[in-house]
Amino acid sequence: MIITPVTTSSSEGEKLIKGLEDRYQSADDKRRQMVSAIIAEVRARGDAALMEYTNKFDAPDLDLEHLRVSAAEIEAAESKLEPELKATINKAVERVRSFHEHEKQESWLVTRDDGAITGRLIHPVDSAGLYVPGGQGGKTPLVSSVLMNGIPAVIAGVKRLVMLTPPAAEGGINPALTYAATQIGIKEIYKAGSAWGIAALAYGTASIAPVDVVVGPGNQFVTEAKKQVAGRVRIDMIAGPSEVLIVADKSANPTYIAADMLAQAEHDPLALAVLITTSPELGRRVNEELAALLPRLSREEIARQSLSSRGTILLAADLDEALELANILAAEHLELMIKEPFQWLPRIRHAGAIFMGPNAPEAVGDYIAGPNHVLPTMGTARYSSSLGVETFLKKSSLISYSRQALLNDGEDIMTMANLEGLSAHALSVDVRLKNG
Predict the structure, then answer these.
(1) What ranges do the domains of the chain cover?
(2) CATH architecture of structural domain 6-23+240-369
(3) Backbone torsions φ then ψ of 411, nearest 5 degrees
(4) pLDDT at residue 157, as a whole number
(5) Helix or strand holding residue 110 (H, E)
(6) Which of 11, 57, 151, 267 has the fewest CB atoms within 10 Å of its CB?
(7) 191/172 Cα distance (integer angstroms)
(8) Do 6-23+240-369 and 29-106+125-235 show the same overall fold?
(9) Between 280-293 and 254-265, two packed helices, what is the crossing angle to 10 degrees?
(10) Rounded distance, CA 249 to CA 242, Å?
(11) Distance between CA 393 and CA 380 in Å, rounded?
(12) CB atoms within 10 A of CB 20
């Protein structure tokens, strides 16, 4: 049996649940120091440091002149792709764009009878940097990352969009990435990756002007770099290993469940696939299906490691307990493979994305459904949300007071200011009341 089912009420089950609750991972001291040193080098030496790291770890012969993807490379990318792939990318663009159009926000004002005006002004940031992982040296281009991160920025109205992605050893990038970027309006593309790429986006070099927001997935070095530059720029989130939590009753199809657990497990040996079910028989059958499906995977060994080290099957007493556990664990992806999932939906409070019923595998959300696949992990769905248009917007409060409004509120303002020991605050109102 690949994953031994454990009853939630047992001591072993309680220990497993506690471990899943406390799954937030921070970088170890060594990695943190390494990333800090890389960022310091890029800040101090700019392009020289950026190219040294790029030559050492990615493309030995890439020179500064070819750091930016040229107009010729962009033009050539489209001709290198099969029409079917271009059609699929275009379909995904439309779906993601259509969904995120609903996230637009508008400025608003409120007026009072005494002439006071308050409100909120919504503006996009001036610039945003999109990081796209290399994908096995460019062999598996993560086109969906381009779309999911870039389209909300476009809809928000960001004027300058920059994409960074590690080059392959020969110095190029996969044309599918270039095509996807140009389809959504990104033309400033650079061949750089990892922590040095994030540092360049945050602090700038002679070749790459700094941005205001940095988004996009990456390995542990990318994640740590984003964490360290947060504050200098806005970041989307601190992301951990991919995860799925499936809540299933006896009506669920064990083959579907096994396939969806494998879809997470193939990402990374640290990926997390959890099944909470009310049916011991289903837990047994899922194990059988896992064993049958594993040999069909191109990443069989990675998936097997993930399931062996982190795969979990919990047997709950009933759906009430299962769904409350789902809330406690606050998973990145939550699948409800139960009868009448919409009936139980009001019970769900915490999840990055919720997939309803047998025909909504997590993969549809990764690529084509429309909602964003950049989601909170490691339990952070308790307080955070998916990437969206709001990630690229900032809000400014607006306050305008008439003379009468200040007269009406002046004494209260001074009372609170004096209570807090801020006499100059009170004075700034008092001089107006006495000299207006």
Answers:
(1) 6-23+240-369, 29-106+125-235, 402-435
(2) 3-Layer(aba) Sandwich (3.40)
(3) -65, -40
(4) 98
(5) strand 108-111
(6) 11
(7) 8
(8) yes
(9) 60
(10) 24
(11) 21
(12) 20
Residues linked to residue 118 through DSSP beta bridges, in sequence order: 110, 399
pTM score of the predicted model: 0.94
Catalytic residue, candidates 41, 243, 266, 332: 332
Residue-wise pLDDT for 265-299, tens only, equals: 999 999 999 999 999 999 999 999 999 999 999 99
> Average pLDDT, stretch 37-51?
98
Would you say how long the chain is, in residues? Answer: 436
Percentage, residues of the chain above pLDDT 90: 95
DSSP per-residue codes, 357-425: STT--HHHHHHTSSS------TTGGGT-----GGGGEEEEEEEE--HHHHHHHHHHHHHHHHHTT-HHH
Q: Find residue 398's DSSP bridge partners.
A: 119
Question: 131 — phi, psi (to 5°)?
Answer: -95, 130
Cα separation, 170 vs 178, whole angstroms: 16
State both tokens at 102.
């609903």
Residue 245 has phi, psi (to 5 degrees) of: -125, 120
3-state DSSP assignment of residue 114? coil
Assess whether 332 carries a catalytic annotation. yes
CB 350 within 8 A of CB 301: no
Q: What is the token pair recorded at 207? A: 């070749």
Which residue intervals of 314-370 are DSSP H helices? 319-329, 341-344, 362-367
Give the tokens for residue 360. 């909504």
Q: Which of 333, 335, 362, 373 is catalytic?
A: 333
Tokens representing 168 are 């392959």
Assigned CATH topology for domain 29-106+125-235: Rossmann fold (3.40.50)
